[in-house]
Amino acid sequence: xxxxxxxSYTARRLVLYAILWCISVVVLALSASRIHYTRNSxxxxxxxxAEILVASVLTIIWVPIAMFLLMAVRAAxxxxxxxxxxxxxxxxxxxxxxxxxxxxxxLVGAAIITNEFPTKLxxxxxxxxxxxxxxxxxxxxxxxxxxxxxxLAWMHHASTRGPGSGSTMGRGGNMTNASGGHNAPIMTGTx
Length: 191
Known about the structure:
single chain; mainly alpha; 4 helices; 2 strands
């Protein structure tokens, strides 16, 4: 691991954010093409395709912001002293809040488009059948990448909360305080 244990989560998340951005651009193009086709040919559009288009646009906007927040943490870690833990940053909740909103949007979009357009039925319709198949597949891929990013973010957050942070459990069920001493034991069972 080139950057240490905490920075390896950051590096992996940065790579996954870059992949997610690329997939969102492709999904934007596919969903725009589908909306253009249905509006010109049938004078309507599928609302779920419009929702996926919105999710991809919001992802395209949000990913650079999330990457900037992660890079700010890495830069702070490079110039900070030994006493400061750069991975405990105030941007983590903001990154997660945006990520979970997008995660929910991609989940809803992927589930509904899979239900409305089963890929077995759309194989025989030529180019637009393949477009729908690709759209269904890429919405699930985007959802999966956001899930992995969320898991890595929580793993990163958990790895930064080591002994001395005031919130970890010590040996024997005792809580440790910030100086490493033990507080009163935690009572388990009934009295």
